[in-house]
Amino acid sequence: MSVHSLAASRRGARPSLLDVAAEVLVADPAASLAEVAEAAGIGRTTLHKQYATRDDLLRAVGHRAIDLWEQAVAGAGGGGDPDGGLRALVAAMIPIGPQLGFLWRTPAFDHIDALGQRWLSVEARCLAVLKRAQDLGSLAAGVPDWWLLQMLYSIVYVAAESVGVGKLAPLDAPGLALGTFLHGLGARPARAGEER
Questions:
Q1: pTM for the full model?
Q2: ∠ at Cα 148 (158, 122), nearest 5°?
Q3: CA angle, 70 as apex, 64 and 71 as ends, to 5°?
Q4: Is the per-residue pLDDT at 53 higher than 60?
Q5: How many Cα atoms are found within 13 Å in the side-chain-facing hemisphere of 27?
């Protein structure tokens, strides 16, 4: 998606500067501050007043992504949900997929302690939702924690990207993503008396 098409798609709603920056930087990791400013519909000088350097902007976008991720996990409390909050977690993470994609795909964040600590904290809470889903029988027992997390991230990322390019309707994304996460892509075994 080009900077121009991002700007054009924004004319109706006014997302935050950091959300626009995340989308621009996911689409083009080498995008300049001028391109981010253009996509956000502001002048480069205005952007520089808020974020003096590209590194400042990157750190701010990283913290914004973690803020959104924390909100998504908090909304998946699992209070009585038969899947321990897994459906709510997937549904909350897909809309913030561009921000999460930026967070997950930016190696520079590995060297920023404040981001790393926040990441580990929210990841632990995310894993707690997955473990509840395991305990309730929604996810297979014995799957390593790291694999549970990586599969969740992969499903969320692909669903969000598919919504972003118009291949998947936003309302259909959580169901398709969760169904794939829970059941994979294998054919459902035929029941007695059923044909395939």
A1: 0.80
A2: 85
A3: 95
A4: yes
A5: 20
